[in-house]
């Protein structure tokens, strides 16, 4: 008899948020400014502008360092999760979450990144948060770096370009492992490590204008190398300090199809996809892929590596591969091919796919394709740690009828199940922005992903009241039935 389709027992259903987009309280209880606190909201940008993170000025950095102009910096206020976390976790528990992905704001623990002692108030906040999750039987999945390094390190070293930042990050991580060793088993090192090329400041505190002329790319690759080394060292420490812990890498899965079967399009697509794999390749296989090394050489990019770096990368590879998946795109070598925005990228439009209000092309089957590709390549357990639909929700009589979000998730869950059925090992699924938070790319509040509505507009007006959307009750049923009931 054919085996019936079902998610594995113990499948980790849940949601995901990041400190810089949710917590707010950006300068409370000793927290130092982070790079996210310097990113201002710019009204009326076009969709294409939103495909990249908006440019940063010296003024933005000074505003953050001096604590000016709060209103223009939505990530400083988030949704005040810092003060609302108990209420929010109770709502996640009501939905039946098994896991919540959160990140630790590095500058809450080390305000400048290099302080003599960690900030006890910051450590205590996360201890309380993790205890609250455990009280509700929710497993924390913790990202150590999610677009929120201390601004002081960005200023002093041009972020990850300088090797000293590796030491600072390893120290920060070690403090976290020691403190939370009884509370947290699942860890991610760098969120979307590949995004360093798309938004170097947000990901790695790097401002290209600080590089020597013609050396901006080289600096970005150097910063990336430092993150690879730091990730491996932190993986080593996590395994040593927390026996049985599992550490994952985290990739933006930018699945790309050839726009046509012209061999030129197929080759351009292959290169795009190989580039996307490169980051996980290093963290899973413990070495740079030869084609990437050759490409860097041809482009005149020289990465300074310490003698022991190769050994470190090889010795301390990750236990699982996590990734975000929102959309797919196509690639073409035709100069007039129409490009539309996706997750901080511009890709060639796929005529077969619908798109979100922000232009991201919705492709559930692309998730199954991504799972098959990743599992075939790495043969490591996979964890979908971000997926969701950014949409403008409307409140009518206190209700939010977000069928579009339910349809989106249903289709993505079904494709996940189909991949599991074909043999892919999937640990869990944390939906992105399970409660409305500030958008990473646009700093808008109106780009909502949550099952829980938060009453706040782009300018920060609102009561911050939390409301259950229709999708809240739907996801509750999905989890309760371990995915058997998706109607
Ligand atoms: C991912 C990021 O790339 O996309 C998240 O890891 C982000 O931080 C998510 O919020 C959705 O993007 P956006 O720009 O719509 O918030």
TrEMBL record:
EC id: 3.2.1.-, 3.2.1.86
Catalytic residues in the record: 386 (nucleophile)
Enzyme class of the recorded protein, top EC level: hydrolase
CC terms in the record's Gene Ontology section: cytosol
InterPro entries membership: GH, GH_1_N_CS, Glyco_hydro_1, Glyco_hydro_1_AS
Recorded superkingdom: Bacteria
GO BP annotations, alphabetical order: carbohydrate catabolic process
GO molecular function: 6-phospho-beta-glucosidase activity
Keywords: Glycosidase, Hydrolase
PANTHER family in the record: 6-PHOSPHO-BETA-GLUCOSIDASE ASCB-RELATED, GLYCOSYL HYDROLASE
Family named by the database record: Belongs to the glycosyl hydrolase 1 family.
Record-given protein name: 6-phospho-beta-glucosidase
Organism from which the protein derives: Kluyvera georgiana ATCC 51603
